[in-house]
């Protein structure tokens, strides 16, 4: 649901994010209301004309929300950082479309600056700092050395600036307990298979370093103060609108792909039916799919 860090077409995590761009944009649309609330909360205490950095801008949802929030308080600069050109271009286009033009001139109250960069190889402070706010949602866990990545993001902050990490929360859910085909509880088994895939993904990542601590501990360890967190809910209940059904189909497709070798044959058969537009069980036509997830944002301030 949210923004994802990308560091090449096939990234350090081996994921082809370019092929997932449509899914990222669809998720950004469904998360938009929650993300707007977060953006307003994060920018309201910043100084006038602040610089805000969106690291791993993904579908552009937070980029748009940051532009809107900065416009409402008088302007600023939004720096978008990603290393997949197609992803960066999509986010920049969305952000620029949200910028307010003054007197129909090309001067905007919010400047949008896209930066193509791999933060596993380049220092954020050199390409985007000093920043009054750095937003990094579901980004750091895709980088080889997560603690070092957080330290590098903290270095990009101006004194008094805030680092906001969107990490953790609760797994997105979209399926009822009993779908009428296969064994009940398919969503839980998909979540378990995804967790196993994630462990393997991290283990197979070149130069991967484990992070045996919570994000609040990491923020404190890298020298940030006033460390805290809050959580937010994304809730699109059944009966689902078409956009939610489309999201659910693509989400289950992805879960089936990454968990294929960890699922029982009966579950794989059920998934084939759920993802087949010609099958009566097709998710895209069901009124009982939904979207429910909870994300957590961890905050720390540079002294």
Automatic annotation (TrEMBL):
Keywords: Methyltransferase, S-adenosyl-L-methionine, Transferase
Residues spanning the signal sequence: none
Organism listed in the record: Saccharothrix espanaensis (strain ATCC 51144 / DSM 44229 / JCM 9112 / NBRC 15066 / NRRL 15764)
Chain ranges of the Methyltransferase type domain: 53-163
UniProt xrefs under Gene3D superfamilies: Vaccinia Virus protein VP39
Biological-process GO terms, alphabetical: methylation
Identification of the protein by name: Methyltransferase type 12
Presence of keyword tRNA-binding: no
InterPro entries in the cross-refs: Methyltransf_12, SAM-dependent_MTases_sf
PANTHER family assigned: METHYLTRANSFERASE, UBIQUINONE BIOSYNTHESIS O-METHYLTRANSFERASE, MITOCHONDRIAL
GO MF annotation, one: methyltransferase activity
Pfam families attached to this UniProt entry: Methyltransf_12 (PF08242)
């Amino acid at each position: 649901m949210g923004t994802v860090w990308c560091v090449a077409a096939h990234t350090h995590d081996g994921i082809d994010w370019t092929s997932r761009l449509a899914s990222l944009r669809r998720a950004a649309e469904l998360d938009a209301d929650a993300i707007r609330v977060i953006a307003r909360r994060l920018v309201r205490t910043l100084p006038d004309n602040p610089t805000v950095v969106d690291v791993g801008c993904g579908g552009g949802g937070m980029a748009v929300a940051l532009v809107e929030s900065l416009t409402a308080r008088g302007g600023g600069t939004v720096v978008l950082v990603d290393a997949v050109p197609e992803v960066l271009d999509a986010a920049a286009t969305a952000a620029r479309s949200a910028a307010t033009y003054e007197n129909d001139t090309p001067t905007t109250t919010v400047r949008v600056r896209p930066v193509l960069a791999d933060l596993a190889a380049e220092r954020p402070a050199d390409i985007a700092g000093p920043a009054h706010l750095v937003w990094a949602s579901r980004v750091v866990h895709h980088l080889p050395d997560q603690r070092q990545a957080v330290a590098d993001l903290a270095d990009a902050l101006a004194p008094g600036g805030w680092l906001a990490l969107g990490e953790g929360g609760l797994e997105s859910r979209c399926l009822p307990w009993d779908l009428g085909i296969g064994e009940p509880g398919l969503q839980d088994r998909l979540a378990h298979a995804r967790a196993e895939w994630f462990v393997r993904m991290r283990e197979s990542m070149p130069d991967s370093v484990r992070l045996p601590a919570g994000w609040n501990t990491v923020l404190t360890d890298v020298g940030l103060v006033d460390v805290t967190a809050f959580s937010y809910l994304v809730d699109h209940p059944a009966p689902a609108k078409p956009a939610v059904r489309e999201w659910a189909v693509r989400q289950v497709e992805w879960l089936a792909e990454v968990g294929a070798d960890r699922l029982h044959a009966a579950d794989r058969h059920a998934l084939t039916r759920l993802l087949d537009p010609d099958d009566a069980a097709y998710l895209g036509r069901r009124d009982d799919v939904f979207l429910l997830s909870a994300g957590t944002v961890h905050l720390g301030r540079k002294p």
